[in-house]
């Protein structure tokens, strides 16, 4: 009886894993949802204006300790790859312009900052836990999504999948 249950469980796990691999192995790229975003400095971005560029979206908040710990990493990647066609948009979620500006005075960033009120991105990617990273490739397709802080290697691997690599 116990052996039968173990065999059934093993078969069920195998079927679930096979189905997951079939879905994950799909070669059909998923287009990024139609979006608009305006930075604190007034730059505007849409799917049309990013065509031909790689985009790294970072969804963050001022109170998120993991966001703070990866802030310099995201800024470093922004500086390293901006001349290779990377656009980094750090989307602060749910905080006032006043609060974000005060935070940035004490913790300057080199990447472009977008507020929730100036974009529809946070809703599209259901940003409720932070950080969340989304990479959009040069063709406007989602190349990768990462929930949570995973460090430099994980971000660079997502970027490498789009053809961006350090020299």
Overview of the structural elements:
- The protein has 167 residues and is α+β, with helices and mostly antiparallel strands.
- The protein contains 6 helices and 8 strands.
- It has helices spanning 2-24, 47-50, 65-81, 97-106, 121-124, 151-160; strands spanning 30-31, 36-39, 44-46, 54-60, 86-92, 112-119, 132-136, 141-147.
- An 8-stranded mixed β-sheet has the order 1-8-7-4-5-6-2-3.
- Strand 5, helix 4 (97-106) and strand 6 form a beta-alpha-beta unit.
- The radius of gyration is 19 Å and the shape is globular.
- It starts with a helix and ends in a 7-residue tail after the last helix.
- Mean pLDDT is 86; it is low at 4-25.
């Amino acid at each position: 009886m116990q052996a039968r249950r173990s065999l059934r469980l093993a078969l069920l796990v195998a079927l679930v894993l096979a189905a997951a691999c079939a879905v994950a192995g799909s070669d059909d790229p998923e287009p990024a949802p139609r979006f608009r975003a305006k930075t604190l400095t007034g730059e505007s971005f849409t799917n049309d204006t990013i065509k031909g560029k790689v985009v790294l979206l970072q969804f963050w908040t001022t109170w998120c300790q993991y966001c703070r710990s990866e802030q310099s990493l995201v800024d470093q990647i922004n500086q390293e790859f901006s001349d290779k066609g990377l656009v980094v948009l750090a989307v602060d979620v749910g905080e006032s312009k006043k609060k974000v500006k005060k935070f940035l005075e004490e913790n300057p960033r080199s990447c472009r900052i977008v507020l929730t009120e100036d974009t529809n991105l946070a809703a599209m990617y259901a940003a409720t836990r932070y950080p969340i990273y989304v990479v959009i490739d040069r063709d406007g397709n989602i190349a990768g999504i990462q929930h949570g802080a995973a460090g430099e290697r994980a971000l660079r691997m997502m970027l490498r999948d789009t053809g961006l690599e350090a020299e």
